[in-house]
What we know:
This is Helix-turn-helix domain-containing protein. GO terms for molecular function: DNA-binding transcription factor activity; sequence-specific DNA binding. Residues 176-274 form the HTH araC/xylS-type domain. It comes from Salmonirosea aquatica. The protein has 274 residues and is an alpha+beta fold. It has 2 domains: 2-167, Jelly Rolls (Sandwich); 178-273, Homeodomain-like (Arc Repressor Mutant, subunit A). The chain has helices spanning 91-100, 121-129, 142-159, 164-167, 178-185, 192-198, 203-214, 218-237, 241-244, 253-264, 268-273, and strands at residues 2-4, 21-23, 32-33, 36-43, 45-49, 54-57, 62-65, 69-70, 72-76, 83-89, 114-117, 138-140. Strand 5 and strand 6 form a beta hairpin. Helix 6 packs across helix 7 (203-214). The radius of gyration is 21 Å and the shape is globular.
Amino acid sequence: MITFGLKQQPLNLKVNNIQSCHLGPEISPEQFISEHFFLYLLTGSMKVFDGNKHYQMVPGDYCIARKNHLVRYTKYKDNGAFEKIIITLDEPFLRTFLDRHPFDVNAFDKSDSFLFIKESRLIKNYIHSLEPYYTGDLVLDENFADIKREELLMIILKSDPGLAGVFFNFGAPAKIDLQAYMNRNFRFNISLERFAFLTGRSLSSFKRDFQNAFGSNPGSWLKKKRLEEAYFQISQQGQKPSDVYLEVGFEDLSHFSFVFKKEFGRSPSEVLQQ
Protein backbone atom coordinates (compact mmCIF):
# COMPACT_ATOMS: atom_id res chain seq x y z
CA MET A 1 0.00 0.00 0.00
CA ILE A 2 1.13 3.57 -0.70
CA THR A 3 0.00 6.38 1.57
CA PHE A 4 -0.49 10.01 0.62
CA GLY A 5 -0.52 12.72 3.26
CA LEU A 6 -2.55 15.89 3.61
CA LYS A 7 -1.00 19.31 3.01
CA GLN A 8 -2.51 22.03 5.18
CA GLN A 9 -1.88 24.95 2.80
CA PRO A 10 -2.04 24.70 -1.01
CA LEU A 11 1.13 25.39 -2.97
CA ASN A 12 1.31 28.65 -4.85
CA LEU A 13 2.02 26.75 -8.05
CA LYS A 14 0.10 25.36 -11.01
CA VAL A 15 -0.40 22.13 -9.07
CA ASN A 16 -2.14 23.27 -5.92
CA ASN A 17 -2.70 20.32 -3.62
CA ILE A 18 0.21 17.94 -4.13
CA GLN A 19 2.85 17.78 -1.44
CA SER A 20 6.10 15.84 -1.51
CA CYS A 21 5.25 12.28 -2.42
CA HIS A 22 6.72 9.01 -3.55
CA LEU A 23 5.11 6.47 -5.84
CA GLY A 24 6.58 2.98 -6.09
CA PRO A 25 9.35 1.26 -4.11
CA GLU A 26 11.56 3.44 -1.94
CA ILE A 27 14.89 4.43 -3.46
CA SER A 28 18.21 3.83 -1.74
CA PRO A 29 19.29 6.42 0.85
CA GLU A 30 22.89 5.93 -0.28
CA GLN A 31 24.70 8.22 -2.71
CA PHE A 32 24.02 5.45 -5.21
CA ILE A 33 20.99 5.43 -7.49
CA SER A 34 19.85 1.82 -7.28
CA GLU A 35 16.78 2.24 -9.54
CA HIS A 36 15.69 4.75 -12.16
CA PHE A 37 13.32 7.38 -10.83
CA PHE A 38 11.30 10.26 -12.23
CA LEU A 39 11.57 13.56 -10.38
CA TYR A 40 9.31 16.60 -10.62
CA LEU A 41 10.26 19.55 -8.44
CA LEU A 42 7.41 21.49 -6.84
CA THR A 43 9.06 23.85 -4.34
CA GLY A 44 12.69 24.72 -3.65
CA SER A 45 15.68 23.90 -5.81
CA MET A 46 18.38 21.27 -5.95
CA LYS A 47 21.95 20.90 -7.16
CA VAL A 48 23.42 17.50 -7.95
CA PHE A 49 27.02 16.42 -8.56
CA ASP A 50 27.88 13.01 -9.97
CA GLY A 51 31.66 13.20 -9.71
CA ASN A 52 31.92 14.57 -13.23
CA LYS A 53 29.06 16.96 -13.93
CA HIS A 54 26.85 19.41 -12.02
CA TYR A 55 23.08 19.57 -12.50
CA GLN A 56 20.64 22.18 -11.23
CA MET A 57 16.87 21.72 -10.83
CA VAL A 58 14.22 24.34 -10.17
CA PRO A 59 10.43 24.14 -9.75
CA GLY A 60 8.77 22.85 -12.89
CA ASP A 61 11.71 20.69 -13.98
CA TYR A 62 11.06 17.09 -15.02
CA CYS A 63 13.95 14.65 -15.09
CA ILE A 64 14.99 11.01 -14.93
CA ALA A 65 17.68 9.96 -12.44
CA ARG A 66 19.50 6.96 -13.88
CA LYS A 67 20.32 3.86 -11.89
CA ASN A 68 23.90 2.74 -11.26
CA HIS A 69 25.16 6.31 -10.86
CA LEU A 70 26.74 8.02 -7.87
CA VAL A 71 25.34 11.42 -6.95
CA ARG A 72 25.42 13.96 -4.14
CA TYR A 73 22.38 16.18 -3.60
CA THR A 74 22.26 19.70 -2.15
CA LYS A 75 18.70 20.83 -1.48
CA TYR A 76 17.60 24.45 -1.06
CA LYS A 77 14.28 25.23 0.61
CA ASP A 78 11.92 28.00 -0.43
CA ASN A 79 10.25 29.59 2.60
CA GLY A 80 11.11 26.48 4.60
CA ALA A 81 9.70 24.03 2.04
CA PHE A 82 11.30 21.52 -0.31
CA GLU A 83 8.65 19.50 -2.11
CA LYS A 84 8.87 17.08 -4.99
CA ILE A 85 7.23 14.13 -6.70
CA ILE A 86 9.35 10.99 -7.03
CA ILE A 87 8.15 7.98 -9.00
CA THR A 88 10.45 4.96 -8.95
CA LEU A 89 10.76 2.92 -12.13
CA ASP A 90 12.35 -0.21 -10.71
CA GLU A 91 13.54 -3.21 -12.71
CA PRO A 92 10.67 -5.62 -11.89
CA PHE A 93 8.14 -2.98 -12.99
CA LEU A 94 10.14 -2.20 -16.15
CA ARG A 95 10.42 -5.87 -17.11
CA THR A 96 6.67 -6.31 -16.73
CA PHE A 97 6.06 -3.14 -18.74
CA LEU A 98 8.34 -4.36 -21.56
CA ASP A 99 6.46 -7.68 -21.71
CA ARG A 100 3.20 -5.77 -22.14
CA HIS A 101 4.52 -3.04 -24.45
CA PRO A 102 7.46 -4.22 -26.63
CA PHE A 103 9.90 -1.45 -27.57
CA ASP A 104 12.95 -1.39 -29.79
CA VAL A 105 15.88 -1.12 -27.40
CA ASN A 106 18.96 0.54 -28.84
CA ALA A 107 22.14 1.60 -27.07
CA PHE A 108 21.92 4.98 -25.34
CA ASP A 109 25.16 6.91 -25.84
CA LYS A 110 24.87 9.62 -23.14
CA SER A 111 26.52 9.10 -19.76
CA ASP A 112 24.53 11.78 -17.90
CA SER A 113 23.23 10.78 -14.47
CA PHE A 114 20.18 13.04 -14.87
CA LEU A 115 18.19 13.37 -18.07
CA PHE A 116 15.86 16.37 -18.34
CA ILE A 117 12.50 15.91 -20.05
CA LYS A 118 10.86 18.70 -22.01
CA GLU A 119 7.45 19.77 -20.81
CA SER A 120 4.58 18.58 -22.98
CA ARG A 121 0.83 18.69 -22.70
CA LEU A 122 0.76 15.00 -21.80
CA ILE A 123 3.26 15.15 -18.96
CA LYS A 124 1.80 18.38 -17.64
CA ASN A 125 -1.66 16.80 -17.57
CA TYR A 126 -0.22 13.70 -15.94
CA ILE A 127 1.13 15.73 -13.01
CA HIS A 128 -2.28 17.37 -12.64
CA SER A 129 -3.94 13.94 -12.72
CA LEU A 130 -2.17 13.08 -9.46
CA GLU A 131 -3.72 16.05 -7.68
CA PRO A 132 -6.99 14.42 -6.50
CA TYR A 133 -5.05 11.81 -4.54
CA TYR A 134 -3.47 14.45 -2.30
CA THR A 135 -6.58 16.17 -0.98
CA GLY A 136 -6.84 13.89 2.04
CA ASP A 137 -5.32 10.92 3.80
CA LEU A 138 -5.84 8.52 0.93
CA VAL A 139 -4.18 5.17 0.29
CA LEU A 140 -3.49 3.76 -3.15
CA ASP A 141 -3.16 0.02 -3.53
CA GLU A 142 -0.17 -1.27 -5.46
CA ASN A 143 -2.16 -2.22 -8.56
CA PHE A 144 -3.42 1.32 -9.00
CA ALA A 145 0.05 2.73 -8.34
CA ASP A 146 1.46 0.58 -11.14
CA ILE A 147 -1.19 1.90 -13.52
CA LYS A 148 -0.06 5.47 -12.81
CA ARG A 149 3.57 4.46 -13.23
CA GLU A 150 2.76 2.74 -16.53
CA GLU A 151 0.96 5.85 -17.74
CA LEU A 152 3.98 8.00 -16.90
CA LEU A 153 6.39 5.69 -18.69
CA MET A 154 4.22 5.60 -21.81
CA ILE A 155 4.22 9.42 -21.87
CA ILE A 156 8.00 9.62 -21.47
CA LEU A 157 8.68 7.05 -24.19
CA LYS A 158 6.21 8.74 -26.55
CA SER A 159 8.15 11.96 -26.05
CA ASP A 160 11.57 10.30 -26.52
CA PRO A 161 11.56 6.67 -27.75
CA GLY A 162 15.35 6.60 -27.44
CA LEU A 163 14.99 6.45 -23.66
CA ALA A 164 13.99 2.80 -24.08
CA GLY A 165 17.74 2.20 -24.20
CA VAL A 166 17.99 3.63 -20.68
CA PHE A 167 14.99 2.01 -19.04
CA PHE A 168 15.27 -1.45 -20.56
CA ASN A 169 19.00 -2.01 -20.27
CA PHE A 170 19.03 -4.64 -17.55
CA GLY A 171 22.71 -5.59 -17.79
CA ALA A 172 25.32 -4.96 -15.11
CA PRO A 173 27.83 -2.12 -15.68
CA ALA A 174 30.64 -3.02 -18.08
CA LYS A 175 34.25 -3.23 -16.93
CA ILE A 176 35.78 0.25 -17.04
CA ASP A 177 39.08 2.03 -16.30
CA LEU A 178 39.56 1.62 -12.56
CA GLN A 179 42.05 4.45 -11.98
CA ALA A 180 40.00 7.07 -13.77
CA TYR A 181 36.79 6.03 -12.03
CA MET A 182 38.24 5.94 -8.51
CA ASN A 183 40.09 9.24 -8.87
CA ARG A 184 36.81 10.83 -9.96
CA ASN A 185 34.57 9.19 -7.35
CA PHE A 186 36.63 8.58 -4.20
CA ARG A 187 34.61 11.19 -2.28
CA PHE A 188 31.43 9.10 -2.44
CA ASN A 189 30.79 7.18 0.76
CA ILE A 190 29.73 3.80 -0.58
CA SER A 191 30.87 0.25 0.11
CA LEU A 192 33.66 -1.53 -1.74
CA GLU A 193 31.01 -3.88 -3.08
CA ARG A 194 29.31 -0.91 -4.74
CA PHE A 195 32.59 0.35 -6.21
CA ALA A 196 33.30 -3.14 -7.53
CA PHE A 197 29.84 -3.42 -9.13
CA LEU A 198 30.00 0.03 -10.71
CA THR A 199 33.41 -0.68 -12.25
CA GLY A 200 32.17 -3.97 -13.71
CA ARG A 201 34.02 -6.32 -11.37
CA SER A 202 33.48 -8.88 -8.66
CA LEU A 203 34.74 -7.79 -5.26
CA SER A 204 37.78 -10.07 -5.49
CA SER A 205 38.65 -8.82 -9.00
CA PHE A 206 38.18 -5.23 -7.84
CA LYS A 207 40.62 -5.68 -4.95
CA ARG A 208 43.16 -7.43 -7.17
CA ASP A 209 42.94 -4.83 -9.95
CA PHE A 210 43.03 -2.04 -7.40
CA GLN A 211 46.26 -3.34 -5.86
CA ASN A 212 47.83 -3.58 -9.32
CA ALA A 213 46.67 -0.09 -10.31
CA PHE A 214 47.40 1.84 -7.11
CA GLY A 215 49.87 -0.32 -5.21
CA SER A 216 47.57 -0.23 -2.18
CA ASN A 217 44.41 -1.87 -0.90
CA PRO A 218 41.17 0.06 -1.53
CA GLY A 219 40.43 0.87 2.13
CA SER A 220 43.84 2.43 2.83
CA TRP A 221 43.89 4.32 -0.46
CA LEU A 222 40.40 5.75 0.03
CA LYS A 223 41.18 6.95 3.56
CA LYS A 224 44.41 8.63 2.48
CA LYS A 225 42.89 10.18 -0.62
CA ARG A 226 39.93 11.56 1.32
CA LEU A 227 42.17 12.97 4.04
CA GLU A 228 44.42 14.65 1.48
CA GLU A 229 41.37 16.22 -0.15
CA ALA A 230 40.12 17.38 3.25
CA TYR A 231 43.52 18.89 4.09
CA PHE A 232 43.50 20.80 0.79
CA GLN A 233 40.00 22.16 1.31
CA ILE A 234 40.73 23.26 4.89
CA SER A 235 44.25 24.63 4.41
CA GLN A 236 43.94 26.14 0.92
CA GLN A 237 40.27 26.97 0.61
CA GLY A 238 39.50 27.86 4.23
CA GLN A 239 36.65 25.36 4.52
CA LYS A 240 35.38 24.48 7.98
CA PRO A 241 35.97 20.88 9.12
CA SER A 242 32.22 20.53 9.78
CA ASP A 243 31.58 21.40 6.12
CA VAL A 244 34.29 19.15 4.75
CA TYR A 245 34.02 15.74 6.40
CA LEU A 246 30.81 14.66 4.66
CA GLU A 247 31.96 16.15 1.37
CA VAL A 248 35.04 13.91 1.28
CA GLY A 249 33.29 10.71 2.32
CA PHE A 250 33.43 10.49 6.13
CA GLU A 251 30.30 9.77 8.17
CA ASP A 252 31.29 11.11 11.60
CA LEU A 253 33.02 14.40 12.45
CA SER A 254 34.78 13.12 15.56
CA HIS A 255 36.16 10.07 13.70
CA PHE A 256 37.25 12.32 10.85
CA SER A 257 39.06 14.64 13.27
CA PHE A 258 40.79 11.66 14.94
CA VAL A 259 42.14 10.11 11.73
CA PHE A 260 43.02 13.55 10.33
CA LYS A 261 45.23 14.37 13.32
CA LYS A 262 46.77 10.89 13.21
CA GLU A 263 47.66 11.42 9.54
CA PHE A 264 48.90 15.02 9.66
CA GLY A 265 49.89 15.57 13.30
CA ARG A 266 47.41 18.43 13.70
CA SER A 267 43.66 18.58 14.10
CA PRO A 268 41.48 20.01 11.31
CA SER A 269 40.79 23.08 13.47
CA GLU A 270 44.50 23.69 13.96
CA VAL A 271 45.11 23.48 10.21
CA LEU A 272 42.27 25.93 9.58
CA GLN A 273 43.74 28.46 12.03
CA GLN A 274 47.30 28.34 10.66
